[in-house]
Amino acid sequence: MFTINDIEYAKQRMADLEKEARQYKLGHNYLSRKKKIQKSFLKRVLSYFTRVNSK
Questions:
Q1: Cα separation of 16 and 22, whole Å?
Q2: Is this model's pTM higher than 0.90 or not?
Q3: Measuring CA to CA, which residue among 39, 41, 43 is closest to residue 51?
């Protein structure tokens, strides 16, 4: 049989795991967004140089 302490521990552990999962997802979203921003910045720089060189 489960005791009240076991149930409380399980609830606390689930809350901790949900918090970790949320942090992981937020971090993953941030990194992917950052990568997109860097890519677009590189594209802008390269397109600038191609325009300057073609003149």
A1: 10
A2: no
A3: 43
